[in-house]
Design goal:
By secondary structure, the chain is an alpha/beta fold. It folds into 4 domains: 203 residues, Response regulator (Rossmann fold, 3-Layer(aba) Sandwich), CATH 3.40.50; 90 residues, no CATH class; 138 residues, Transcription Regulator spoIIAA; 131 residues, Transcription Regulator spoIIAA. It has 28 helices and 21 strands.
C-alpha cells in the first residue's frame, strides 16, 4: 500500500543532471543537439502550446523532472493524424508523459450546448482545432504507434477526471476509465508532482512500470486483489437500497472508532469488527470495491452511488484504495497523494521558468498566457466543494500554500524580467482567491474528516477563517518598488471574506480594478443546495461591505455577480425567481453560463442519474430536477437574460403556461412587457445601449488609469 513519499527535493538526482539547466525545454532535435543531448529521458506530449510558466502543467512537470536530473523534451500540439510528429524527439529512454493540457479537451473544444468553439486560448493566435477530441487518448495511441515498447504515463486534468468510469456529456453515456481506452501503462491524478517524481526515479532504476503499484496518486490495472488486503463491497457499506445496521465508513464524528465498534457489535458483524479496532492500520490494507463499469454504465443509481463513495474517499488522511472491474481486469485507484508542504511549493515555483512562450512561437499571441503572464499563483486546493466544479477532485480540499518570501520573489522576477510589465500585477490568487493559509484548526480532525465541504451548509467551526496572512501579503506586494497596482482576479469566496472585515476593506480599497467578479450562482435554495453554495444572504452581506468600503475609499466600483442556468435541482420557477431578483437589483447579464456536466463532478452524477450523491443514494431516494432538453436549457438561459427582447416571446409563453401571467407587463414587479417591439427598434435600442456602455467604460478606464498610475485620463492630457 502507498507509503509517505520523500520530499520532492530529497531524491538523489539522476545521472543526466550533468547536462545542467536548459534555457527552455527543447521541442526539436536541433535544440537537443545544442544542449549536447543524444536523447531525451522523458518526452512530455501536451495539447497546449508550450509556455515556460508555472501556470502551465507541462512547464511545472518538465522543470521539476529537470531539477531531478532528467532530460525532458516537449512535443506540444502535435499533428495527431499520424505518428511522425510523435517521433520528432526520438525514442525517450524512460517514458512518454501524455496530457491534454490545462483543460479537458472536450470542454476546451465544445460549448455547454455542444457547439464547436472557434477558438482555443491555449493555442498561438487563439486558433481552434489544434488538438483532437479526447486528446489524451489519441496522443497515447500515437505514442504507442511511434515506439511500442516505451511506457505511457497519463496525467493532467483530463486524465485525472476520467480516471474512473465516468459519465461523458458529449456521448451521453458512461465511458470506462481513460486508462483502458488510451492503452496507457499508468495514470497519475491530481497535480501529480509527488507521483511523477517517484515514478520517474523508480523507472530510471530499472523497475518495470507494470510492477510499480504502490505510489499514492496513481491509477493502474491489476488482475486481482493482492494478498493481505481486506476488500469491502461499497454497496454493502453504503447500500443503495435497504439500510443495514452496520458501520458506515462515512460517519464523521469525533469518536468514529468507538461509535463504529458499538454499531458493529450490535449488528454482530465479524467482518466489520475486524476492520474497526485499528482504523488506520487496517485502512492501509483495505480496498473498497465499487460496482463494475458494466454495472454503473447500465444502472444510473449505481453510478450515483459509486460517485458518492469516490468523493468520500478523497481525503489523503483517511482515503482507502478503490477498485472497479472493467471487463476481466480491475482498475485500481490508490489514495490521493499527500499535500505539498510550503517548502515544496516554494521549491516548485522557484524553478528557472522563463515565464514566456517557447521561442518557436515568435510573436504569436497565446490568449491564456496573456491572461496570466503578470499573475502569481499563491496556493492550491479548494475546500468549497462546489458540486459543479472539478478543482477539489483534481487539487484536493487541503490548501497548499507558498511562503510570503517565495511570492514576493516571483513578483520581483515579473517586474524585472517579463516583457511588457507596466507595474500592474494582474492577480495574486489560485483556485480561490482568499483561501490562502486557511485550514482546519486541528490536523487530527482534518485527517479524519470526510465532509465534502468546509463551508457548506455553513462554515465549519473547526475552520480557521483569519485572513490576516493574506491581508499582510497584499500589503507587502503593493509596497514593492515598481509595483503600482495589485489586482485580485481569482474567484472569491465571499462567505469567508465577510468573516474578516479587515480583509474586505484591504481588498476593496486597493485591489479592485473597477469591477469585482463573484459567483453567487443562484438565489433559490433548491439549486444552491445541489451546488453546495451559500444562500444569497451571504452575497447581500458582502455587497453591503463592498459598497461601504468603496464609498470610504471614494471609488466607483461594481460587483459583477455570476449565475448558472440549468443546474441540477433547478426548476422553471427557480429561474423565474432569479430573473425577478436580477431585475429588482438592476442586473443585466451580457453573457450567461449554462451548467456544463464535466467528468466525475458530483453535479454531473445528479444530471445523469437524477439522484443526489450528497446524501445516501437509494432506488427510492428523492429525484433531482434535471434540465436536459435543449428547449429547457434555452429557456433557463433566456430567463437569465430577461432584458433581451429576443427572449420575451419564449418567456411570455412560459409564464402563461405556469399561470404566472401577472408577471407580464411593464411594472417594476413584472418581468417582460406585453408588446413585442419590431426588429428595427430592437437593433436601434441595442446600438444606443452599446454606445452608452462603451462611453461609460471609457470613463471608468480613465478613472482606473488615474488610480493605477497617478496620471490624468488621456482625454484630459
Amino acid at each position: 500500500m502507498p507509503a509517505s513519499a520523500p520530499k520532492l527535493h530529497d531524491y538523489n538526482k539522476y545521472w543526466a543532471e550533468c547536462y545542467g539547466i536548459a534555457p527552455q525545454l527543447p521541442m526539436s532535435r536541433e535544440e537537443m543537439d545544442a544542449l549536447g543531448w543524444d536523447s531525451c529521458d522523458i518526452v512530455i506530449v501536451t495539447g497546449d502550446a508550450y509556455v515556460d510558466h508555472p501556470s502551465f502543467g507541462m512547464a511545472i512537470i518538465g522543470r521539476l523532472l529537470e531539477a531531478n536530473g532528467f532530460r525532458v523534451g516537449i512535443i506540444a500540439q502535435p499533428d495527431w493524424r499520424s505518428k511522425e510528429a510523435f517521433e520528432a524527439l526520438g525514442k525517450p529512454n524512460l517514458y512518454f508523459g501524455v496530457a491534454a493540457g490545462n483543460m479537458d479537451s472536450m470542454i476546451n473544444r465544445y460549448t455547454a450546448d455542444k457547439k464547436v468553439r472557434n477558438d482555443d486560448a491555449y493555442t498561438p493566435h487563439g486558433v481552434g482545432g489544434k488538438r483532437p477530441d479526447r486528446c489524451s487518448l489519441v496522443y497515447s495511441q500515437r505514442c504507442k504507434e511511434a515506439f511500442r515498447d516505451v511506457p505511457i504515463v497519463l496525467g493532467g486534468i483530463e486524465a485525472s477526471l476520467r480516471r474512473i468510469a465516468h459519465y461523458d456529456y458529449w456521448q451521453g453515456s458512461v465511458r470506462r476509465s481513460i486508462l483502458l481506452d488510451a492503452s496507457a501503462d499508468i495514470l497519475v491524478f491530481g497535480n501529480a508532482e509527488r507521483a511523477i517524481v517517484e515514478l520517474s526515479h523508480r523507472i530510471a532504476r530499472g523497475e518495470p512500470v507494470e510492477d510499480i503499484r504502490d505510489i499514492r496518486g496513481t491509477a493502474l490495472l491489476r488482475d486481482d486483489t493482492p494478498d493481505g488486503f481486506w476488500e469491502i463491497d461499497s454497496t454493502r457499506i453504503d447500500r443503495p437500497g435497504r439500510i443495514d445496521q452496520i458501520v458506515s465508513p462515512y460517519v464523521n464524528t469525533q469518536d468514529t472508532e468507538a461509535c463504529a465498534t458499538k454499531q458493529a457489535e450490535a449488528a454482530g458483524d465479524a467482518n466489520v469488527l475486524r476492520f474497526v479496532p485499528d482504523a488506520k492500520k487496517n485502512r492501509d490494507k483495505t480496498v473498497i470495491r465499487l460496482p463494475s463499469f458494466e454495472k454503473v454504465r447500465n444502472d444510473a443509481v449505481l453510478y450515483a452511488h459509486a460517485n458518492r463513495v469516490l468523493h468520500l474517499e478523497t481525503n489523503p488522511g483517511n482515503a482507502r484504495a478503490l477498485v472497479q472491474a472493467h471487463g476481466g481486469r480491475d482498475l485500481w485507484i490508490n489514495p490521493p497523494a499527500e499535500p505539498l508542504s510550503t517548502d515544496e511549493m516554494d521549491y516548485i515555483f522557484g524553478m528557472p521558468f522563463t515565464r514566456v512562450p517557447h521561442t518557436d512561437y515568435g510573436d504569436a499571441r497565446i490568449p491564456a498566457y496573456e491572461m496570466i503572464r503578470f499573475s502569481v499563483n499563491i496556493m492550491r486546493g479548494c475546500f468549497g466543494g462546489c458540486t459543479f466544479c472539478s478543482i477539489t477532485e483534481h487539487e484536493g480540499r487541503i490548501i497548499q500554500n507558498r511562503s510570503e518570501e517565495s511570492i514576493l520573489e516571483e513578483v520581483k522576477k515579473i517586474r524585472d524580467t517579463v516583457p511588457g510589465f507596466t507595474g500592474v500585477v494582474s492577480d495574486l490568487g489560485g483556485p480561490t482567491a482568499n483561501m490562502y493559509r486557511l485550514a482546519c484548526k486541528s490536523r487530527e480532525i482534518e485527517a479524519a474528516c470526510r465532509l465534502p465541504s468546509c463551508v457548506y451548509p455553513g462554515i465549519c467551526s473547526n475552520l480557521n477563517t483569519d485572513h490576516s496572512a493574506l491581508t499582510a501579503l497584499y500589503r507587502k506586494v503593493r509596497e514593492l518598488p515598481g509595483v503600482k497596482k495589485v489586482l485580485i482576479a481569482s474567484g472569491l469566496r465571499y462567505d469567508l471574506a465577510v468573516e474578516d472585515p479587515e480583509y474586505v476593506k484591504e481588498l476593496v480599497t486597493h485591489h479592485v480594478g473597477g469591477y469585482l467578479k463573484i459567483a453567487p450562482e443562484h438565489t433559490e435554495q433548491g439549486p444552491l443546495d445541489k451546488m453546495m453554495k451559500p444562500g444569497i444572504g451571504s452575497y447581500d452581506r458582502f455587497k453591503e461591505m463592498f459598497e461601504q468600503f468603496s464609498k470610504e475609499a471614494d471609488k466607483e466600483q461594481y460587483l459583477i455577480p455570476y449565475f448558472i442556468a440549468a443546474h441540477p435541482g433547478t426548476t422553471d420557477k427557480d429561474m423565474v425567481n432569479l430573473a425577478l431578483w436580477l431585475k429588482k437589483n438592476n442586473f443585466r447579464a451580457d453573457q450567461v453560463q449554462a451548467f456544463y456536466p464535466s467528468p466525475m463532478a458530483t453535479a454531473t452524477a445528479m444530471y445523469h442519474s437524477r439522484k443526489n450523491p450528497l446524501r445516501k443514494v437509494t432506488y427510492k431516494s428523492d429525484t433531482v430536477d434535471t434540465v436536459k432538453s435543449p428547449e429547457k436549457r434555452r429557456l433557463h438561459k433566456a430567463l437569465l437574460r430577461y432584458h433581451d427582447p429576443h427572449n420575451w416571446p419564449l418567456i411570455r409563453e412560459t409564464l402563461k403556461a405556469m399561470n404566472l401571467g401577472g408577471l407580464i407587463g411593464s411594472g417594476d414587479e413584472q418581468l417582460v412587457p406585453v408588446d413585442q417591439p419590431n426588429e428595427k427598434d430592437v437593433r436601434d435600442s441595442a446600438r444606443r445601449k452599446n454606445r452608452a456602455a462603451a462611453h461609460q467604460k471609457r470613463i471608468r478606464k480613465g478613472k482606473a488609469l488615474t488610480q493605477h498610475t497617478g496620471l490624468p485620463p488621456r482625454e484630459n492630457r
